[in-house]
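Hi U.,

Before I forget, here's the chain from the pilot set. I'm dumping it here mostly so it's searchable later in email.
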Amino acid sequence: MSTRQLRINKAVAGSLFVLTVICLAFSSYGVSLPTVPLTLPGEVKWREAAAGYQFTFPRDHAAHPDYRVEWWYYTGNLESQSGRKFGYQLTFFRVGVMRGLVIPSRWAIRDLYMAHFAVTDVQQNSFRFFERINRAGLGWAGADSIDEKTAKSENDGHTGLRVWNEDWEAHIGDGSQTIRATEGNATLNLQLTPLKREVINGENGVSRKGPLTENASHYLSLTRLETTGQLVIDGQSLDVKGLSWMDHEFGTSFLYGDEVGWDWFSIHLDDQRDLMICRIRGRDGSIDPHSSGTLIEPDGRSIHLGFEDFKVTPGEIWQSKESGARYPIGWKIELPKYQLELSIAAALDDQELRTAQTTGVNYWEGAILVLDSGKKVLGNGYLEMTGYAGENMGKMFR
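Structure:
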């Protein structure tokens, strides 16, 4: 058995309570499991995202251990010096298992740390993805909180906050960020420099996701990150450059129970505007009216988009041979008030991640092209689609 597999096994080892909670949170929901209490004596409840939250930096780039679910999400479109095009995703998840219990062991599972890494090679029609799961253990994984470190020098010369899962890592400094990941035949080593200030998505400090006030998160983005670095594919090292997008989101309840998933778009337009839209789908096919978005102007000014401000229409369907899920890989996005009408096309049809060892969820996330009605390229971006393969994302986030 490999060291990698041993660490996966250790990450999910522990008490029956912990195993049951993990299975309830991340199983494919086809098996009935025993019900267990979600709070033990002495355990503190997780904090809910609430209106009025005031973001400050660098604090809110760091971990928020009082909330149950948190992620740092990096996606981007890259190009080599020869014009070869790539997309990438590197995501770090923290999922709380127990809060407030003091267990004097470095092996106790307070949080699980998961990570997904994917590379789209457009010209080679290739998509590869990898996943990891760990507990903190002996420094296997983690995320700095502001109380632990705000500007500590690392051995490699970086300063600031660090999020990591073994040797996959993000360093978040005052002026730039560095992300690294190596797995199999793919290596990513990128420097990200913000071209716009942080954007707070939603209203009054919260991004609502459903009909209840607790169906919400605190959600910040760096929407336009100038990106340079190296990408190694099948032993070939390429200097690349492009644009990236970073999302950092934290909360506890997120979706309502009958909400099965979402369609999330992050778009870089050539006119220097950026656009985020999150369309939340119900089990009956309806779209939750709390679906929303953000339009970011060239000067960094952000405009909140309510449900009435945009129309998103799915088009061409691609069916996965692996999961059987049917994903819309063509879309039309309309923002009449802002004179925007965009056609979305997948850069590659098959960009499905099948993450049985971590979240237990199949989802599509990949590079997209943004076109006008005449098929002229207006920009690029990333698209994430969840809940198409049978997993109820609302159940997962309860």
